[in-house]
Amino acid sequence: MLVLTIESSCDETAAAVVKDGRRVLSNIVSSQIDIHSRFGGVVPELASRCHVESITLVIDQALEKAGLTINDIEGIGMTRGPGLIGALLVGLSAGKAIALAKKLPFVGLHHMEGHILAALLEHEIVFPFLALAVSGGHTHLYRVDGIGQYRTLARTRDDAAGEAFDKVAKLLGLGYPGGARIDELSAGGNPEAINFPRPMLHKGLDFSFSGIKTAVRNFVVSQPVKNEQQLQDLAASFQTAVIDVLVAKTFRAAKEHQLERIVVCGGVACNRGLRHRMQATAEQSSCLVYFPSPALCADNAAMLGVAADHYLENGAIGDLGMNAVANWPLDQAGQ
Ligand code: KG4
Ligand code: ZN
User: Fold this and answer.
1) What SS3 class is residue 330?
2) How many helices (H) and strands (E) does the chain have?
3) Ligand 1 contacts CB of residue 183 (under 6 A)
4) Is the dihedral of CA 175, 176, 181, 183 positive or negative?
5) Residue of the nearest CA to atom 8 in ligand 1?
6) Is the pTM of the predicted complex or chain greater than 0.90?
């Protein structure tokens, strides 16, 4: 089945064409980062307006890159939530409009379901598996028993990991979003230079990252950064504290729930330090770790192709009255 997928939950307008839920024929992402970065974060109203301006062009580009026209498309999948409501509505409405005009079936999908199943575009992974979903809005551990079968095992009690990266980057004057910049700086820094806290490291599976962020703020106030090496040491020490917690809890969850396969996904899964540590820890255990490639970790539409194909093949048909959902637990997302 040839499926067109559309994603507009935050600050990326994206469309893709995916064949049979596995082969990515095109994956176009138009980022709004330049527009939001001067405000130090995503401005929801601006995001919605930018999506409106780009959506048709991005869909056209996805079709063109795939060497297809809209008449070749057999179904549509779009992100229904969670995310910014105005932003979500743009992609959802675009998908519904095309579906109505071309008499195509469509399905509204959960953004995190897309992130998790992106791993299946590049790897054969047997269910069940554990998913660590780390993005700007999520730091969750899910048990995945199949497509549409998700159970939340842990979540962050406060900031998401990506949010912590972005807030620390902002207070260090590194711009927005700063996760990738901290990752780069960490490569040249000493991860043991500063001993930042590892909140809730030995307590349950839930996460908490706001304490690390506050510790970095307090450190910078008492000892202002004077040179590039100190900045790199600070970035590396912060990043290592976050990674220590993510890795320890993920492997503990895998052990407690007897899961031997782990998928790490979402924007923070681009982090080179996290990828390296997850892989190294897996090698010392009986677990296999899978990461989508970086382009499929950050927000994109191809990641929706796996679930869209599955639900459409199984007869799911969205109704035109379907609304976007700003807050939507993944456990309730199966079709
Ligand atoms: O999944 P995503 O693209 O959007 C959301 O659904 O939130 O994730 C964006 C988050 C941002 O917080 C960004 O700073 C972070 O992912 N991120 C990174 C890296 N690349 C992106 N964090 C750490 N290291 C990176 N290399
Ligand atoms: Zn995302």
Assistant:
1) helix
2) 11, 10
3) yes
4) positive
5) 267
6) yes
Q: Is the CB of 135 under 6 A from ligand 1?
A: yes
Task: Choose which residue among 7, 31, 117, 135 to substitute to test ligand 1 binding: the one with the highest number of ligand atoms within 8 A of its C-beta.
Answer: 135
Is 179's C-beta closer than 6 angstroms to any atom of ligand 1? yes
Listed in sequence order, the residues at least 6 apart from 285 whose beta carbon sits closer than 8 Å to its beta carbon are 251, 254
Our answer on whether the CB atom of 180 is closer than 6 Å to any ligand 1 atom is yes
Q: Rounded to 10 degrees, what is the CA torsion of 126, 129, 132, 135?
A: 50
pLDDT tens, N- to C-terminus, the chain (335 residues): 999 999 999 999 999 999 999 999 999 999 999 999 999 899 999 999 999 999 999 999 999 999 999 999 999 999 999 999 999 999 999 999 999 999 999 999 999 999 999 999 999 999 999 999 999 999 999 999 999 999 999 999 999 999 999 999 999 999 989 999 999 999 999 999 999 999 999 999 999 999 999 999 999 999 999 999 999 999 999 999 999 999 999 999 999 999 999 999 999 999 999 999 999 999 999 999 999 999 999 999 999 999 999 999 999 889 999 999 999 999 998 77
